[in-house]
């Protein structure tokens, strides 16, 4: 892909991510006001000034508006831009930090609200686990490509699984401690993993 095409694709992905984040902010407000179960997709779409059909272009279900986001392409791009001479885990840590640093204060607030809601609604926890398993597969493929190994390599899968474990622990911690700094927590968690998980 030519540089101009990559730049256009990157801008498109960022715009999509911003639109998804805006819909999520409206959804979170409605969930606060009326409760998760009482809020409909139609109400979320109306608040976001989009049609229900447009909502479903971004989110397959109401659960997805809480459990999913569109930051994966940003993570992939940041990962691929990492220097070849650093470890896959350091490249992943750098890419995650780069992606999080792009989030506005409002987007970080939405992340906290989403995590708090996921912890309290059972069907959302199931949706989150499905979403994270897809992210783990994506990370597995990114690492395998970087080190020229197969995605079904157990060592590669173990590394991506460990990274997802860190992400889950950080997000749960952040849901319980909204005063914390998500970016700092994530960096500390991934640094601990990179150091071999010392206690």
TrEMBL record:
GO molecular function, one term: DNA-binding transcription factor activity
SUPFAM superfamilies documented for this protein: Homeodomain-like (SSF46689)
Domain HTH tetR-type: 17-77
PANTHER family assigned: HTH-TYPE TRANSCRIPTIONAL REGULATOR BETI, HTH-TYPE TRANSCRIPTIONAL REGULATOR RUTR
Protein known as: TetR family transcriptional regulator
KW Mitochondrion (keyword) present: no
Keyword Transmembrane belongs to the record: no
DNA-binding span(s): 40-59
Keywords, sorted A to Z: DNA-binding, Transcription, Transcription regulation
């Amino acid at each position: 892909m030519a540089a101009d095409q990559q730049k256009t694709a990157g801008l498109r992905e960022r715009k999509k991510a911003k639109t998804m984040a805006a819909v999520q902010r409206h959804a979170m407000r409605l969930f606060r006001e009326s409760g998760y179960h009482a809020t409909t997709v139609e109400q979320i779409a109306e608040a976001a000034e989009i049609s229900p059909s447009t909502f479903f272009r971004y989110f397959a279900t109401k659960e997805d508006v809480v459990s999913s986001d569109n930051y994966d392409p940003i993570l992939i791009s940041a990962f691929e831009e990492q220097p070849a001479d650093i470890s896959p885990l350091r490249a992943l840590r750098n890419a995650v930090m780069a992606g999080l640093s792009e989030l506005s204060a409002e987007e970080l607030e939405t992340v906290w609200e989403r995590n708090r809601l996921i912890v309290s609604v059972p069907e959302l926890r199931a949706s989150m686990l499905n979403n994270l398993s897809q992210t783990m597969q994506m990370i597995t493929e990114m690492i395998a490509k970087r080190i020229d190994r197969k995605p079904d390599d157990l060592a590669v899968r173990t590394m991506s699984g460990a990274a997802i474990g860190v992400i889950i622990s950080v997000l749960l911690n952040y849901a319980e401690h909204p005063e914390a700094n998500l970016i700092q927590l994530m960096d500390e968690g991934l640094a601990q993993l990179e150091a071999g998980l010392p206690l």
